[in-house]
Design goal:
Shape: elongated
Distance between the termini: 50 Å
Order of helices and strands: HHHHHHHHH
Helix content: over 70%
Keywords: DNA-binding, Transcription, Transcription regulation
Mean pLDDT: 80
Number of helices: 9
Radius of gyration: 19 Å
CATH class of the largest domain: Mainly Alpha
Structural class: mainly alpha
Number of domains: 2
Largest sheet: none
Number of strands: 0
GO molecular function, one term: transcription cis-regulatory region binding
Pfam families: TetR_N
Protein name: TetR/AcrR family transcriptional regulator
């Protein structure tokens, strides 16, 4: 890792810390610079404005999630229903019913910021489009109805980040519920297996 990479990561880490501790209203470039032990002008060399800093923080989140899942994906045998089910469970645990409270808090704050910043909102929407396509590509060899599954899981993940701790089912039961729902989901007509069940032994 280069010195620039190390400094960039430090800045993003301190941004996350401030978002978690003080919320979006408390996040300023001056506070981030002070937390990093650098001058404001030095911070702005890396991130000219608050929008660029938030965008980099979002990108880092998605990259971290992708790296975790890609490592598990390499272990999956697409033709093995039990392996596929285990992979799906891992995807849901990491990306959907996420127990990383830091991620949940950060994204609540980032969406709050985007409600007042059209450019940031557009950036987030573009990330989510790309993220959805990445998830579809990740799952479509295993689950023919990947479009439908991803269209369910991404909004569920956003909702869970907001209200997951208030739901009547605990995290483990929510994961099990989603795995069951998806593995018993009828394959889409385009797969040529209408009415088939995915990952379920008959």
């Amino acid at each position: 890792m280069t010195k620039r990479d190390e400094r960039t990561r430090l800045i993003i880490d301190q941004t996350i810390q401030l978002l978690r501790d003080e919320g979006s209203e408390g996040l300023t470039l001056r506070k981030v610079a002070a937390a990093c032990g650098i001058t404001l002008s030095n911070l702005q060399y890396y991130f000219p404005g608050k929008a660029e800093l938030i965008q980099a923080t979002v990108a880092q989140f998605f990259t971290t999630c992708q790296e975790l899942i890609q490592a598990d994906r390499a272990l999956v045998l697409p033709k093995d229903p039990e392996s596929s089910r285990a992979f799906l469970k891992r995807v849901i645990e990491v990306l959907v019913v996420c127990d990383n409270q830091e991620f949940n808090v950060i994204f609540r704050e980032i969406w709050a910021l985007s409600s007042r910043d059209a450019a940031l909102k557009a950036t987030l929407e573009e990330y989510y489009r790309n993220y959805a396509q990445w998830m579809i590509g990740l799952m479509e060899e295993i689950f023919p109805q990947a479009n439908e599954i991803v269209s369910l899981l991404i909004p569920y993940a956003e909702g869970y980040a907001l209200v997951g701790n208030t739901l009547p089912l605990n995290r483990e039961k929510q994961v099990a519920m989603l795995v069951k729902l998806i593995t018993e989901w009828p394959a889409s007509p385009r797969s040529g297996k209408a009415g088939a069940r995915v990952g379920v032994k008959r």
